[in-house]
From TrEMBL:
It catalyses: ATP + protein L-histidine = ADP + protein N-phospho-L-histidine. PANTHER family: C4-DICARBOXYLATE TRANSPORT SENSOR PROTEIN DCTB, SENSOR HISTIDINE KINASE. Its EC number is 2.7.13.3. Keywords: ATP-binding, Kinase, Membrane, Nucleotide-binding, Transferase, Transmembrane, Transmembrane helix, Two-component regulatory system. InterPro entries: HATPase_C_sf (IPR036890), HATPase_dom (IPR003594), His_kinase_dom (IPR005467), Sig_transdc_His_kin-like_C (IPR004358). One of its GO terms (molecular function) is ATP binding. This is histidine kinase. The chain crosses the membrane at residues 12-31, 37-61. The keyword DNA damage does not apply. It is an enzyme of class 2 (transferase). SUPFAM superfamilies: ATPase domain of HSP90 chaperone/DNA topoisomerase II/histidine kinase. GO terms for biological process: phosphorelay signal transduction system. Residues 195-414 form the Histidine kinase domain.
Length: 414
């Protein structure tokens, strides 16, 4: 019976070292006696033994090192993976991963709870999120909408690309913005109601005043008073119809409707504008001054929208002028080539330089009771006519300045 025993790892290096020593001694002895061939053989033998010893040591050392480190490396990798999964499960935002096989994988607990799955989303859920995936080229996460709704919640979608060894994966992060969307909708509704209330009050105040004047005139029962009453009622009807059309369009689109620009007589339009301003601000002591070089012109504009825009500028000027004694508002019109330059100026305190860039912002107001829609709406109306509403600088040269704010814009002659 033959017994095979493994040679202990330490024996090979010691044996090799002893053999190298013995062969070296014999080689030196042969060399000193002139036996060069024997010395060469001893030298080659010593080199061979040394190489075998080193090779065996390296092999044993590598094997031992691998045995000691491999289990630890596997354990460390598994520990890192579990830690990452725990962190992902603590993330409140649902995470979806789409590898190259087209599946949608719920990466963390939030995603699994949202879609009621343990790993991959079913086909119905994928179609609801990505569209019809039955075609030859199904949609991926990269084509997902920027916002989605799921189970009554609204999520913002952020897509990230992840490059792997041989393919590209996509990761979707879903952020719950339901509360923000509801707050934005509430703010938009409140702002819309502010605008509608502002415009209704500005338009209905002169209508109510002219209606009362017409009623008083009818009580006189004279041909002159009846004619004046009929004229006042015609103005009331015209303003009411224009306001009704504007409000209906604004309510339907929740924005300013596009202007219907056509040639309008400036003379009659100014007459209605002046009567409306006098009816609203005359009894409050605001003087209305006009400086009109040529009113026998026709302008290319939407008559009702421009009336609202200029009325807003005049009303803002009147409110500002009331802050100082002898309140005045001035409307100046002068021809500038193929256009008419409008200037609306008041005798108020003016607009501070630090507020000059903000006065046209929607719902920004420097007055405690202001809604902040007058100037922004006027700017939008004038922009729709291809012009720009500009706040003149305090240093701008104007004849007989009133000392307050001055706005100007141009309208093309038709």
């Amino acid at each position: 019976m033959v017994f095979k025993r493994a040679i202990p790892p330490v024996v090979w290096p010691l044996t090799a070292q002893a053999g190298v020593f013995v062969l070296g001694a014999f080689g030196w002895l042969a060399l000193t006696r002139g036996l060069y061939a024997s010395a060469l053989v001893c030298g080659l033998g010593a080199i061979t033994l040394a190489w075998l010893g080193l090779s065996h040591s390296a092999l044993v050392l590598g094997r031992d090192l691998l045995k000691r480190t491999q289990p630890g490396a596997i354990f460390t990798a598994e520990l890192s993976r579990r830690r990452l999964q725990v962190l992902l499960d603590q993330t409140p935002s649902p995470l979806l991963l789409q590898p190259d096989n087209g599946q949608l994988i719920a990466v963390n607990r939030a995603a699994r709870n949202l879609f009621d799955v343990s790993y991959a989303l079913p086909v119905a859920a994928r179609r609801a999120l990505l569209g019809d995936t039955s075609g030859a080229a199904p949609l991926g996460l990269a084509g997902m909408a920027s916002q989605i709704k799921w189970k009554g919640q609204t999520f913002a979608v952020h897509i990230a690309e992840m490059e792997e060894a041989d393919h590209l994966s996509h990761l979707a992060v879903l952020t719950d913005i339901s509360a923000d969307v509801r707050a934005a909708e509430a703010n938009a509704l409140r702002d819309l109601l502010k605008v509608l209330n502002h415009e209704l009050m500005n338009a209905l105040t002169p209508v109510a005043s002219m209606s009362k004047s017409a009623l008083d005139l009818l009580g006189d029962d004279t041909p002159e008073s009846r004619a004046a009453a009929v004229k006042a009622l015609e103005r009331v009807v015209a303003r009411t119809e224009g306001l009704t059309d504007f409000i209906n369009a604004y309510r339907a689109l929740t924005r300013l409707p596009p202007p219907v620009i056509r040639s309008c007589g400036l003379n009659l339009w100014l007459e209605v504008l002046c009567e409306s301003f006098a009816a609203q601000w005359g009894d409050k002591g605001v003087r209305f001054e006009t400086d009109i070089a040529d009113s026998d012109l026709s302008l290319m504009m939407d008559e009702d929208q421009m009336w609202l825009g200029v009325s807003n500028l005049l009303n803002n000027g009147a409110q500002a002028a009331l802050e100082k004694p002898d309140p005045r508002v001035r409307l100046r019109l002068k021809r500038d080539g193929e256009a008419v330059l409008f200037e609306i100026e008041d005798s108020g305190k003016g607009i501070p330089a630090e507020n000059a860039d903000q006065v046209f912002m929607p719902f920004y107001s420097t007055k405690a009771t202001g809604t902040g829609v007058g100037l922004s709406l006027a700017k939008q109306i004038i922009a729709g006519h291809g012009s720009a509403l500009v706040l003149a600088s305090p240093q701008a040269h104007r004849p007989d300045p009133l000392g307050g704010a001055c706005f100007h814009f141009q309208i093309r002659i038709g």
